Amino acid sequence: MSVKIYEGKDLDVLIEKAKNELGDIEILYYEVEKAPGILPFFRKKKYRLFVTKKENTEENRVEHLEEEIKELKSLLVDLKENVTKLPSQQIVPSVPEHLEEKVVCAIPQIEEFTGDAVELINILIKKGVEPSIAVDIVRASCGLDIETEKLDLNTGTFKEALINAFKKKLKFTGEFTAEKGKQKIIAFVGPTGVGKTTNLFKIASKFVIDQDLNVGVISTDTFKVGGTQQARIYTSILNIPFFIATDQKKLKEIVENLSELDVILIDTVGRSHYDYFRLGEIKTILGGLNSSIDYVLLISCNYDTKEAMEIVNRYRSFFPISSLFFTKIDESSKPGILINAGIKSGIPLSYVSTGQRVPEDIKLLSPFVISDFLLGA
Ligand SMILES: Nc1nc2c(ncn2[C@@H]2O[C@H](COP(=O)(O)OP(=O)(O)OP(=O)(O)O)[C@@H](O)[C@H]2O)c(=O)[nH]1
Ligand SMILES: [Mg+2]
Questions:
Q1: What is the pTM of this model?
Q2: What fold, for 184-375?
Q3: Which stretch of DSSP H or E encloses residue 323?
Q4: Which of 138, 142, 320, 327 is most solvent-facing, going by the fewest CB within 10 Å?
Q5: Per-residue pLDDT tens digits for 235-260
Q6: Is 250 helix (H, G, I), strand (E, B) or coil?
Q7: Alpha-carbon dihedral sign for residues 221, 226, 228, 231
Q8: Is any atom of ligand 1 closer than 6 Å to the C-beta of 202?
Q9: What residue segments make up the domains of the chain, in order of their start?
């Protein structure tokens, strides 16, 4: 195996250059160096990238083909979803408020319902729940009205109806817990700026303050200027250890030296879900650990459902996602994303972050909490 080293100021340019010269490459390692200078902010960064040409072995070809098949399958799923949802889903987002009642009437299944059930479906759609999901949710809490021979709610209140339905249709993780002496590793993954670092520390506080556990934080974020500064401040407030791991080997070493900790939280660098290469890089760094990792995927409530599902599908093709953690619900008027993503993905829901304050702006997701968000309580 021959290793080639590229040096320059921009890592992406170096990677491109290596690909142009060598074709299919494997990145072995990269390092960042700051040129000496008097003022730290004006010091120029220099990257050194170590790559090797991927051998065109049978194994590599199979791996490549498998990746292509996976991508095609995910495209097929997207296509099928879009085709089946076309009639009802497309109308909703662009409908002016005064016409919303008419939209509800336009859902074919609405004919099955009467009374409060119709009203509740209407409320859910206004809060961003997809029409077909709104119908399914409400149907789960309905009985047959003898007079009209249509379905109506069999509960006293909307809240009860929703809680019953969510218990049947959604999965919840409950509070993240760990046991003393049985180390748990949780990695926070998700798109850039979604709130990974901020919310990792809300969870760290829960472990430290509420559960009295020994917690450590490792960041793989070495790219963003000041990326680890935020983490350093929080870890010093919580008085817990903080480490930076730039590659697989370093991360493995750090984790091996932290066997006395009950919980290790790993903050990853934010990546576009379209950036397969970077997602693969995170997978490689975390993939060297012998212990199992709980992968928490953060999703902003500002995304629409299609975008959120695209993110879920991309990330789950790289990591076995154990829960969805929603953020920025305080900035969204459509909390329906919580149930759309929960039902479509089948992944358990964990928390929702309700603002920027650490550690207080966080809520554990449960049927009660989601129904409060949807009913505006
Ligand atoms: N309004 C609001 N802002 C939030 C919430 N969660 C995080 N933020 C803010 O979103 C911004 C980005 O948060 P970070 O925690 O740095 O996001 P990140 O995912 O770690 O970002 P990268 O590391 O760059 O990928 C910060 O200004 C946070 O204060 C939330 O629930 N509501
Ligand atoms: Mg971050």
A1: 0.75
A2: Rossmann fold (3.40.50)
A3: strand 321-327
A4: 320
A5: 999 999 999 998 999 999 999 999 99
A6: helix
A7: negative
A8: no
A9: 3-55, 57-90, 94-169, 184-375
